[in-house]
Amino acid sequence: MTIALRPALPADMAALWALRTVAVRVGCAAHYAPGKIAVWTASPVPDAYAAMLAEGGGIVAMQDEVIAGYAMLDINKHEVDAVFVDPARAGLGIGKRLLAALEQLARQRGIGRLHLSASLNAVPFYAAAGFIALREEAYAHPSGISLASMAMEKALAAA
Fold it and tell me: What CA–CA distance (Å, rounded) separates 52 from 147?
């Protein structure tokens, strides 16, 4: 099994969003109420995604010509916006590789510290990658719902 990373392209958007929807439904089910997940996953692709892709902040993991996961970095906000892996491919290290690639991209852009708002199910993943939990917060999702989350950050070593 070979995983190849490549820049995310605008043409990937529908596939990325479909993968994200499945990942939220599966990965967040034990941490969020079904009604919240339904509203969360019904939301459209945020306008910010196109800007992040235009800035070069999207990375896709490919496995056998299939998108296995993706990650998005908001370069202007120094924020990890998303790391999602196809639940059928969980546990293969894809998320770790994507996050490491985002960190490298951030360092190349002169970013010394990354922050994010982690869904409750993702806190252990980010903590294992060296992100420090700062505070619990209510993330105001663009769909209008509030999601319990954890504000986290990581200082990046020099490139």
Answer: 23
What is the rounded radius of gyration, in angstroms, for the C-alpha atoms of the chain? 15
35's tokens: 């009604």
| Residues 108, 85: Cα–Cα separation, whole Å | 24
Q: Where are the domains of the chain?
A: 3-155
Contact 39, 53 (CB under 8 A): no
pTM exceeding the 0.85 threshold for the entire prediction? yes
CATH fold for domain 3-155: Aminopeptidase (3.40.630)
Q: Are strands 58-63 and 3-7 parallel, antiparallel or unpaired?
A: antiparallel
pLDDT tens per residue across span 69-86: 999 999 999 999 999 999
